[in-house]
Protein 1
Amino acid sequence: MVGIESMGIYVPRYRLDRREIFESVGWISRNFLPGERAAANYDEDSITMAVNAAMKCECNDVDAVFFASVTMPYKERQNAEIIATALDLGSDISTADFTGSTKAVTTALINAANYVAAGKAKRILVCAADCRIGRPGSYLEIVSGDAAAAVVVGKEKLASINGYHCVSYDFADTWRIDKDDLAKSWEDRWIRDEGYKKFITEAISKLLEKENVSPSEIAKVAYPCLYPRDFPKIALSLGFSQEQIQDPLFTILGNTGNAHPLIMLAAILEKAERDDRIIIASYGSGSDAVMFTAKENFPFSESIRVRKKMPYKKYIAFRELLPVEKGMRGEEVAPTPVSVLWRNRREILALVGSRCRNCGTPQYPSQRVCVACQSQDLEPYRFADKKGKIFSFTEDYLAFSINPPAIYGIIEFEGGGRFWFDITDCEPGELKVGMPVRMSFRRRDFDPQRRVYNYFWKAVPEVRG
């Protein structure tokens, strides 16, 4: 039976305290909600988070990459292919973007399962990520969270996919036209009563009917939380008990858009018993409900164990909602040489260097001649999945950074090789020589002249939670 082979969850290290949002813009927002929400760092977006989630999957031998998001950096350039290139998956695969609503992830998942079931593919990587930006003080800003999830659809190792039911409506609750950076929405009562509560109820009830399963036979049911007070009423109205309702993680992550259904599945699988039946529903332009059967546990808590507070003023500066003086050093970005990026795409996006077949010395960037033995017998060697440690570093208060100081240094990789990288997700005074790091795919900069987002890899300190 078709199912989930492997899974990866990526939650940014930083959190926004909802109380601080309310205290900062309380005269605008009357919606004080408890807890915190996940917040992407200044150099993260939906693509970078999706890559970092997929890095935790066993995805080296997939036939396709599907990417679901409503916050894709590119409208005309395939975002899924950037993910595939960063993962160094080669060119003999199929890629596709799924967008338009926050249920695009379940659409992608269902399509992947159907492809595999029909024998058109053996394994498909489905990635989902969102980094939604609401106006300061808006309900969207308060309830949203930034995160990513990835699953490999193939054999039923973690969970089997047993059935699904899709409900589709052109329901204008939240929308954004091609020229908008920020979303518009209708009133909350309309969204809650006519959309959210009705669509999820319809999708889950018809799935139960289609599969001839009663609510008592389901171990856990999960769906996004948009309105905390009304959240449990949906499941209770269908005959589920309070114990069967999965915690929506609203107070610790927020509603993470397309990533959320897979994140909730991961949270359930952490404690599920073998053969437990699970229903996961999405919401957006209708609802999809998917039924799974648990096979193995997944260590979800590892994904959220490390977190730091992000000040709200920093958050709105990072999202360019607050104008920031960049100074002379931050004004110019060199024009992007697109042809060079193409020729060196594996080196830049996948962090592929070279290794000598004769003496085993790895090098980055890729070389034609071994620096150690001068042999010309070299092979491609990927550094992105290698751990390393800080050989040396500096905190630069002169170079421009939206999050000063700019921190960078020499990283020494396990197995050999050193190179200079920016170091992110850390604060001044935290780093030490010898500190372990991992590589993280990040946004390097934005070229305003050619309208290009440039990506590269940065080092992230391994911090114990």
Note: The chain has two domains: 2-318, 336-461.
Protein 2
Amino acid sequence: MDIVHIAGEDRGKIMLYTLSTCVWCRKMKKWLDEKGLAYSYVDVDRETGKDKEAVMEELEHWNPLCSFPTVVVNQKECLVGFKPEKLQEIIGND
């Protein structure tokens, strides 16, 4: 699985499941970048074979509808869609 790690301020483990062509996914990444936060992401549509099966299994665990972006924080909370205000609540205010 090709997980990309972006360096920044650690506010917990933030994992994004995204599509390379998704406007809302790009907005979520841009928001995190502008905040200077550390996060990881995987472009699900770029995975193949066993890696795609594995990432889809993870995604379905958190979001059975498999919609994008799906954001998982600290392996505990899941947000579906571009919801920066809600993510800010979960990770703490600046």
Note: Strands lie at 4-6, 14-18, 39-43, 70-73, 77-80.
